[in-house]
Structure formats: C-alpha cells, structure tokens
Amino acid sequence: MKRHYRIAGWFAAAFAGLLVLAMVALWGVAMPIRHLPEPTGPHLVGTISLDLTDHSRVESYSLSDDPGPRRLRAQIWYPAAERTGRRQAWMPDGRAHIRAIVEANGFPRFIWDHTVFMRSGSYEGAPILQVDDDSNGFPLVLMSHGWTGYRGLHTDVAEDLASHGFVVVAAEHTYGAAAVRFDDGTVIQASSRILPLRAETPDFLDYANRLVRTFSADNRFLLSHLSGGYGSTPADDGLASIAARVDFDRIGLVGHSTGGGAMVDMVLGEGAVEARALVGLDAWVEPLGRERLERDSYRVPSLFLRSEQWEGGTNDGYLVPFVERAARLGTDGTSATGASVPVELRQIAGITHAQFSTLYMYRPVMQWIGYLGSADPLAFADEQRRMIREFLQAWLERNPS
C-alpha cells in the first residue's frame, strides 16, 4: 500500500513539474525578453538619468503638510563619442520602478519582472560627441509622456534621434507618471485623485487642465535648467557637458497624449517657448479649452499623428478645428525661421492610443488584451520613428526652408 502511495506521489510531483515547465514555456512565448531596436543613425548614443528639483514651485499634488519643492526624474540621450561598458537597461531604474509601474496600471506586480533583462541602444555616461567647429551645437528635443505613462515608453524614439545628432530630454512627470523612482529610493505613483474618471467628475476638465499645465511647467523647467536658468548652471558635470553642446535656438517638442497637450501649451500665448517644430502623438488638447486654442496665434511647424482609436472622439472637437485654423494661419505667415508654417494632422489606421509607445516590447500579450491594434506593431514603430525623425530633421536643421 505504501508503495502505491509512493508511486502516486512521484506521478503527482512529475505532473506538477511538467505543468510548471509548460507554464514557463508559455510565459516565454507570451512575454519574451526583447531588446530595443537598433538606432538608425551614424552616432553612438549616450544617456544619463538624474533627479532635478524645481525650487520655484511647491509640489501641489503632494498630500504632505510640508510638500517641499517639485521634484522630477529626467533622462537625457545624446550623440556619444565612444562606448562605455555594456548597453544600459531599457528601464534603468530597476525592478522596484518596473513593479510600481505595473501595479499602478492594475497588473500583478511581478508580471513584467523580465524587463530588467531588456537592453536599450545607449551607453550610460558615455562622453558626448564633440560639436563641429562651424556648428552652434546639437538641436534639442523635449519629450513628454502621457497620463500614467513613463519615460521608457518613448526611449526608442529618443535613441533614434540621438543617433542622428539630437540631444533629447524626457521628464518623468511626478504624480502624472505611472511611477517615478528617485535616486534615494522614493517611489511616487500616479493616483486617481490627480485625474478622476470623467464620468464620475463634473469638473473633470479642471483636473485635466491642471495636469496638462503641470506637465508644461515641468518641460519649461527642464529647458530653463539646461540653458542655465533658475539662477545657476547645472551642477552635475555630466549634465553641464551636455548642455554646453546644445543649440538652444533649435528646439523641437514631442509629446504623447497629456504630454502632447503640454507641448502645445508651451508654444501658445504670452511667454511661449520659441520652438521650431512640434510633434503631437494623439495630443490631448481638450483640457486647454476652445477659447485658448482659438485666441492664440500658432506659428510652429507641427505634425499631429492621430490613432484610429481616437478618431472621432471628444478630443477631435478641439484638435481638428485647432489644426485647421493653424494651417490657415500658416499660409498667411511665417515661422521664426522665415519659412512657411505647415501644420498637418495625419491619420494612422489600425493603431490604438497606447501604440504611440514601446508597448510592442510586450507583444503578443499587449495584442491579446487590446492595447495594440490591427497594424503590425513593429512595422508601425519603425514608421513612427521615421516620421518623427524626418519631420524634426527638416525643421531643426540650421536653415530650414
């Protein structure tokens, strides 16, 4: 009798082991380890991540009685002179950051743990490439993620631009990002109190406007800090060496969703940033309001890409008239460079709002749950990088026409 129990136990253990192996194999198919695509430009790419503090603003989203100044996490990509060690992790702030992002999006904390093994196309702390003698520096691109996004969602675009001679700076917008992990280990996640559900909040657009304007102020701070504003030059040697090689007369803006609305906000009205080009990826301009979108003139060459998912949605009631009006103004005036001002809205078939990102790194699971559309994720990602790069190259070169 004991022998029969022993044999049954062996079979049970063997079956359990095979089941675990099958689950591991299935998980490997569903969520394989991938690396970011190779940048297409002639230059190596360097990167640094750092914490920054804007002492001119109090952290208004904090629930603390003594919130202190607003803190941001930022990452910079740039043309590099040489390699330094192995390529950096795609998500360089580690497993704690990844798990906080996953948790904020409602998934089990461990589901993306394999992300720590995914590599980027850039080298941490690599020395920046020297600027040509006849150049004032590399053009600068500010990049901004959407609500509950994070800076890693657009790393592929940033690296590709850097490999073609751009310096790219992306903020991780504290309380607006799914999660931010600072160097001291502090983790701050997004919360529904920052942007409640539209259907449950009569004053939803007040929350939305505050969020977009916060993102905009973050980007203005980054620009001012890099250019030596706020009463001091960047203290970090690595940051200072990068800032010294930037041509601040050639600024481009790229934003997704809330970040796209923030970029439009930056170039409207009094105190507008003198950007030479703007790319909006499903730019959420609704929170800016019709009055502001109609009141202020718009003189920035712009490419707005719209997903099929957002076509005909609420935001179109604001974006489409804004683009049409800006396009008419563009035929009557010129940009800061003296060139005509094209403003285009380009429809992209078969993609979701979230597909303007690196979520293709998690296919096919992201397709199974509807985060990616019918368009081939990799083909669209390649096309998106090309469209953004070519548009910025056309308008951030020294003498665009």
What's the quick description here?
34% of the residues lie in helices and 19% in strands. The chain has 401 residues and is α/β, with parallel strands linked by helices.
What can you tell me about this protein's structure?
34% of the residues lie in helices and 19% in strands. With 401 residues, it is an alpha/beta fold. The protein has a single domain (37-396), classed as Alpha/Beta hydrolase fold, catalytic domain (Rossmann fold), CATH 3.40.50.1820. The strands form 2 sheets. A 9-stranded mixed beta sheet has the order 3-1-2-5-4-8-9-10-11, sandwiched between helices. β8, α6 and β9 (277-281) form a beta-alpha-beta unit. The longest helix is centred in the N-terminal third of the chain and has 29 residues, at 2-30. The protein starts with a helix and ends in a 5-residue tail after the last helix. Mean pLDDT is 88; it is low at 14-27 and 230-235.
